[in-house]
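Tokens as discussed.
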């Protein structure tokens, strides 16, 4: 079976990327000898922190990287997000906020090396683990497999990424000293042929002249690695001793490194805000560094998952979408300010490095925004575009839509009472009869049906569905299509014939003045003035569930179930004088006012 799988993998590789060229002749700058790393032939202990360019406004990249260096880090680890850079098949975007090469160049200017994690699967509490949603428009697509339609698309992406980033490999004088192959694959499957394909695809893309390695949990090492690749181990607080012991037994004589030391945790809607033990983490970091182990702090700075890019987990069969804030209880908080954890880690690192650390760069004060009203509003129903008519319901991706909301409309023949079942609702649906809300179905709660009372005869049925974020972990991601993914039935009978309205909200909507406040899903617009721009946190208390844009920038989602009750506004996105805010709310807010506060608020 293994021999057959290997041959199959080679055939698929040939179909996907052609023959693999020989590796480049340069020797990698990062090497290993006698159980330790060598950088340019000298002993080197990697003291790294994870920080993602997409979660930090471009104008703040240098500030965050400079603070990383001041904490004592010598390396930054970052994922690359395929779905950001190829939003449509064959259309690539490496401009502005997506200019990952510039992020790496700035890191090098600030004295930092880079561990690159190009995926194409990255997890990262990011929508679909970084895979572009358009892959799922193909009903036969099998993500993270050797299926040709997947490998061809993934190899094409990696080749394009190689054009951007291989000039920045350390073998070419750049900051990238190591590249990770796949990501925690042992938590997903154990197909060696698939992992060999991933390794060879990265080599074909030009990344083979630096150290390639895999990263897995300690119990998953055997399933996620390849014999010819070095391995690092991922674990949380309190697990360093046992995890490193397993790694040492698994790969005797190799340098020992934590690919992710979880020095914090993420938040999920409806849960509690994460608080982790900084004292214990600092002690464990001291223990690791004292033994000469290398480490990557996940996260050093989490930042914000702006827009609709948050992911989700399936835990115990239940769907758990993640918040917009990716604060992660990290050393730098969501707005890039040092926390007590930062200084505790800095003190530890200082004890294990030679020479004085750089001074910590100052952080400007956050600001408040005086309460302001959102005076313009437009009901969603009056802002719909042209529909697409279909006989049977289909998922969001089949309409060329990746994110946002989608509206399904029909006019069935009703009885006075009917059991309406929406099979495969993904992820939050509001049901309307002639514009009146009659039911809400939440995937988190396993809800997919409701008894509906309506007048007999014809009445318009609208089902407004929010894509709450695609699953980013486990095999559940392979079928993570959005909208309505199954039939809609009334008393067990399928309802045919639908008009479908795509509502991706790619750009900030433009509400118009209204005489009365809409009673239902609507867009709201207001203005506020700023004397001197600075970071602030938009208070969303009093609003229900929706999304916010400021000066055209998508801040992310809000939801009154918490724990997040504010949205971070980077000061670099504000203007002196007049600024605009647009809010989409699925319901009628308690009040149409907002304000900015100096610190985040958690429920």
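Sequence:
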């Amino acid at each position: 079976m293994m021999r057959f799988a290997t041959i199959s993998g080679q055939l698929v590789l040939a179909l996907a990327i052609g023959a693999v060229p020989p590796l480049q002749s340069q020797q990698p700058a990062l090497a290993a000898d006698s159980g330790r790393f060598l950088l340019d032939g000298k002993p080197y202990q990697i003291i790294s922190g994870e920080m993602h360019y997409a979660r930090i406004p471009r104008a703040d990249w240098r500030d965050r990287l400079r603070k990383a260096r001041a904490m004592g880090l010598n390396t930054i680890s970052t994922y690359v997000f395929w779905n950001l850079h190829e939003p449509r098949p064959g259309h690539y975007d490496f401009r502005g906020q997506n200019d990952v090469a510039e992020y790496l160049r700035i890191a090098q200017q600030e004295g930092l090396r880079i561990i690159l994690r190009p995926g194409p699967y990255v997890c990262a509490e990011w929508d679909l683990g970084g895979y572009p949603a358009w892959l799922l428009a193909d009903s036969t697509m099998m993500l993270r497999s050797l299926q040709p339609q997947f490998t061809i698309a993934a190899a094409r992406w990696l080749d394009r990424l190689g054009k951007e980033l291989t000039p920045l490999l350390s073998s070419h004088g750049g900051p990238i000293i190591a590249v990770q192959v796949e990501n925690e694959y042992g938590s997903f499957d154990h197909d060696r042929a698939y992992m060999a394909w991933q390794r060879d695809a990265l080599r074909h893309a030009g990344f083979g002249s630096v150290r390639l390695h895999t990263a897995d949990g300690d119990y998953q090492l055997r399933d996620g690695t390849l014999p010819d690749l070095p391995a690092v181990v991922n674990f949380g607080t309190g697990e360093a001793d046992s995890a490193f012991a397993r790694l040492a037994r698994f790969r005797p004589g190799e340098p020992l490194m934590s690919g992710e030391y979880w020095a914090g945790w993420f938040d999920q809607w409806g849960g509690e805000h994460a608080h982790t033990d900084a004292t214990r983490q600092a002690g464990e970091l001291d223990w690791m560094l004292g033994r000469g182990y290398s480490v990557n702090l996940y996260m050093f700075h989490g930042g914000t998952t702006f827009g609709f890019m948050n992911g989700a987990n399936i835990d115990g069969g239940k769907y758990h979408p993640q918040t917009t804030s990716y604060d992660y209880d990290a050393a730098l908080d969501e707005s890039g300010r040092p926390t007590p954890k930062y200084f505790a880690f800095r003190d530890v690192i200082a004890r294990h490095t030679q020479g004085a650390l750089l001074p910590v760069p100052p952080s400007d004060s956050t600001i408040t925004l005086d309460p302001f009203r959102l005076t313009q509003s437009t009901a969603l129903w009056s802002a719909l575009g042209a529909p697409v008519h279909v006989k049977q319901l289909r998922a969001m991706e089949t309409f060329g839509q990746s994110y946002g909301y989608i509206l399904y409309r029909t006019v069935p023949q009703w009885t006075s009472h009917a059991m309406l079942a929406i099979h495969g609702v993904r992820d939050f649906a509001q049901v309307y009869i002639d514009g009146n809300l009659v039911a809400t179905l939440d995937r988190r709660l396993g809800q997919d049906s409701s008894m509906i009372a309506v007048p007999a005869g014809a009445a318009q049925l609208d089902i407004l569905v929010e894509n709450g974020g695609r699953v980013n972990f486990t095999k559940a991601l392979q079928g993570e299509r959005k909208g309505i993914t199954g039939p809609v039935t009334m008393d067990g009978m399928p309802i045919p014939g639908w008009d479908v309205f795509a509502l991706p909200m790619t750009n900030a909507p433009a509400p118009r003045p209204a005489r009365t406040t809409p009673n239902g899903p609507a867009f709201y617009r207001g203005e506020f003035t700023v004397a001197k721009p600075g970071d602030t946190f938009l208070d969303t208390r009093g609003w229900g569930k929706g999304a916010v844009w400021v000066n055209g920038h998508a801040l992310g989602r809000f939801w009154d179930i918490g724990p997040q009750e504010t949205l971070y506004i980077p000061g670099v996105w504000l203007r002196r004088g007049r600024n605009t805010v647009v809010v989409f709310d699925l319901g009628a807010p308690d009040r149409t006012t907002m304000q900015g506060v100096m610190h985040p608020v958690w429920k």
